[in-house]
């Protein structure tokens, strides 16, 4: 069982799927290409949902890519040990996912024309979702009580550091032509404008993507209901995501029921 995190430049990371060597390589040596698209979030903020949207846009609405290729191959988390290898292996144009704070991101990005899609979620909902996730995900320390975890979350003593610092850092790019942000709550509203705006940023025809996919991803209340044929690709690789023997049920695409869950937030 994994109980401790290691520190990389003041940010905590769980062992097993991350390593100081991989993080250093990503920051200093990963070569970002001008047509790369990065799906960036703080953890538990809609990463997979946006990944499915971007996958359909990138494939012009053809769902076969989503149906046949797992999400960890389509848009690997490039700061992980295995994800770094996959990102380097994938052909251009690449989709890449990341939870990294901006100060640890690949330095080559800031000299490129690559694009970042940044999804933000209400920190209360992030807290509750992350608490459940930490209870079931072996590389995370046992979170203890919710009150205890709340204190650690507010201090940034959780993997990937402070939610507040993460959002503040990335939102510093607001106004740049290669940076687009959206909230998880906007995704929940199910507006087709989400897909169209994202398509414009990626210079892809939204009409083609909507026609072929029916816009199901960005008009549905949760990523799990986008299409039955897409659901298998949302399942994490078992070797990469070892879980505890007792796993609480996670509710994807739902806002946390905070009044009865955490009265002090």
Automatic annotation (TrEMBL):
Compositional bias (Basic and acidic residues): 237-246
Matches recorded under InterPro entries: P-loop_NTPase, Sulfotransferase_dom
Signal peptide: none
E.C. code: 2.8.2.-
Entry annotated with the keyword Lyase: no
Annotated ranges, domain Sulfotransferase: 34-195
Enzymatic class: transferase
This protein's name: Sulfotransferase
Organism of provenance: Alligator sinensis
Gene: SULT2B1
């Amino acid at each position: 069982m994994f109980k401790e995190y290691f520190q990389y430049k003041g940010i905590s990371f769980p062992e097993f799927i991350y390593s100081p060597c991989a993080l250093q390589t990503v920051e200093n040596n990963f070569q970002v290409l001008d047509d790369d698209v990065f799906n960036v979030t703080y953890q538990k903020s809609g990463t997979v949902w946006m990944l499915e949207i971007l996958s359909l846009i990138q494939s012009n609405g053809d769902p076969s890519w989503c149906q046949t290729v797992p999400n960890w191959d389509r848009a690997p988390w490039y700061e992980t040990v295995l994800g770094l290898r996959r990102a380097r292996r994938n052909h251009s144009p690449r989709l890449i996912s990341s939870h990294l704070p901006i100060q640890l991101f690949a330095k080559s990005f800031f000299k490129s024309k690559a694009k970042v899609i940044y999804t933000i979620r209400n920190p209360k909902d992030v807290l509750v979702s992350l608490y459940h996730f930490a209870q079931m995900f072996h590389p995370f320390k046992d979170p203890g009580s919710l009150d205890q975890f709340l204190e650690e979350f507010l201090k940034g003593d959780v993997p990937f550091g402070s939610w507040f610092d993460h959002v503040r850092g990335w939102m510093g790019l607001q106004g740049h032509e290669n940076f687009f942000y959206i909230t998880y709550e906007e995704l929940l509203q199910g507006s087709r404008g989400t897909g169209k705006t994202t398509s414009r940023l990626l210079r892809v025809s939204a009409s083609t993507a909507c026609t072929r996919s029916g816009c199901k991803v960005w008009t549905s209340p949760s990523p799990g209901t986008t299409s039955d044929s897409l659901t298998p690709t949302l399942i994490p690789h078992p070797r990469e995501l070892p879980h505890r023997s007792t796993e609480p049920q996670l509710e994807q695409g739902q806002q946390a029921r905070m009044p009865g869950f955490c009265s002090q937030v």
